[in-house]
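Appendix B.2, paired examples.
Example (i):
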Amino acid sequence: MSPLKRNKLNKIRFELDKLDNYLIKIIKKRTNLVKKVLSLKEKKSEIVDQKRIQFILKNIRKKSFKNKIDPKITNSIWKNMIWTYIDYERRNFKKK
C-alpha cells in the first residue's frame, strides 16, 4: 500500500474508532432502557414479544431503504441486538 493510501486508511480508521466510541454510549443508554423495561415485566414469558420484534425489523427495513443502507446489514445488526438483549433479560429476570 502506498504511503498516501496508508494515510487515508488511517484517517478513516480514526473516524471509525470515534464512531465506535459514540456507539458504546448509545448501547449503554439502550441497556439502561432495557433494564427499565425488564423491571416492568412480571413473567419470564413476557420477555420475547414476537409482534414487537417484527414491528422493529419492519421499521428498520423501511429506514434502511430510505437512508440507502443495505437492509441485510441493518437486519442482521438489529436481529443480533434484539436477541442479545433477550438473552440479557432472561439472565437478569427476577420474579416479583
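Example (ii):
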Amino acid sequence: MSPESGRSIRDTFWSPEKRVIVGMLVWLGLLALGSSLVATPFETETSAGANIIYPHVMYLHGLLIGMVGLLSLIAMDIFGSGHRGTSYQLVLWGTLGATVLSGLGGIFDRSVTDTFPLWVQIFSFFFLDEILISLSISLFYRAAETRIAATWLAALSALSMLIAAIMGHIAGWMLEFGDWPKSIIGGYATLAGISWQDWMANLIGSHSHEMVTAVLAFLIALTVAAFGLQRKGSWLTRFGLWLTALGVIGMTLVYVVAGFSVAQPPTLFAHGANGLAGDDLVTGVGVMFGGLVALVGLALERLEERMLRWFAVAVSAMIFVTVVAFGYYIEFHENLYGAGAPHAARAVADAVFTWWHQDFAFFLLPSVLGILLAMQRLRAAEHLRRLAGWSLVLGAAVAFVGGLLYIFVDQAKYGASFMVTTVGLLLLAIGMMVAVWSLCAPCPPQQHAEEPVLRMKHA
C-alpha cells in the first residue's frame, strides 16, 4: 500500500493540526536562528569540563521541547493513536502550549532568580508531561493491538522520555530550592549514600543523556512507520528496530539507576585516562547503531519516496559518526583531549566536540530528520519538497565536514573550519525556509484510504 494512505493530518488543507505544525516549524526556526547568538564553539565554549551555563541550557530546552511536541503530534497521526479523540486533542494543544511557553521562557530565563520566565518554562514542562503521558498510553495500546515493531519502539521511547522528564523535574526542584524539604530531599540522599548536591548532579546527567537519546529512538520509529512499512518488513529493518528497542530499555535502566543511586556507569576497557563509559556503549550500539540499521533496511525496501528514505539514512549516518565513532575515538584518547582538563594538548578540540555532538548531532540533525518527516506526512508540494530535502541534507553534510575540520584540524576562530560550517548552516536555513513554503503551497487532491496503514492488523 502506498505511504500516502490515510494521512489524517492533511484531510483539509489548513486543518488545525497543519496550522500548529507549520507554526511550530516557523517558531522553532526562529529559535534556532537565535541560538547562534546564545552559544557557538567559535565564541563561548572554552572547556568540555566547564560548568553548565544555565541560560544556554534553558534556551535549548525551548528547542528540544518544541521538537518533542512536533514529533508527538506527527506520531499520533502515523500510528492512528487517539483516533482524533481526547488523547489526540491533549497532544495537539499540549504541543502548542509546551512549544510556545518553553521558547518564550528560555529567551528570558537567565538565572534561577528570574522567577517569572522560570515559571513560564515550568508550565511548559507540565505541558510536556501531559503530552508524554497521553502519548505513552496511546502508543502502548496501539502496540499491543498491532504488534508492530516500530510501534513498540515508539511506545518504549515515549515512556523513556517521560522518565527522563521526571528526573529533570526533581533536579530542577533542587536547583531552585536546594535541600528542601530536608526530610524528603536530604532524607533520600542520605538513604542513597550521597549528598543532595551529588544526587542533583546525577539526576541532571541522567536526565539530559536519556532525553536526547530517547527522542532520537522515537524519531527512528516514526520514520520507519511513516512510509507505511508493515510488520513483515525486511529482516534488516526488523533487526534494527528491535536492537534499538533493547537499547532504549537498557539505557533507561542504566540512567534510572545512575540518577537515583550512588552507582554510576562503569568505565570499560580502561587504560590510564582512556576508557569507554558504559552508558555510551549502550546508547551508541543499541540506539544509534540500531537506528542506522533500521533506516538502511527501510531505504532498501520496495516502497515509494526512495529519495526521502535515503536522506533519512544520510542524516542517521552523520549522527552515528559524530556521536559514536568520533566520540569513542576521543574517549580512548583522553590523554590528549583531557576530558575537560584545560591544559590538555587538545583541550580546545575536546570543547568543540562537546558542543558539536550535543547541539549539532542531538539537536540539529534530528530536527532535519523531523522536517523531512513533516514534509512526507503533510504531502508537501513535490518540487519544493525535493528542493528542500536536497538543501537540508547537503547543508547538514557540509556543516558535518566543517565541524570535523574544526575538531580535528583547525580550531582558528574564523578560519577555514568556520567558513565551511557557516556555508552548511546557511544551506540548512535555506532548506528550512523552502520546507515551510512547501507545506504552505496548495496540494493536489488525492485519494485516501479509509484507514491508515498502521491501523491494519497483520496475520
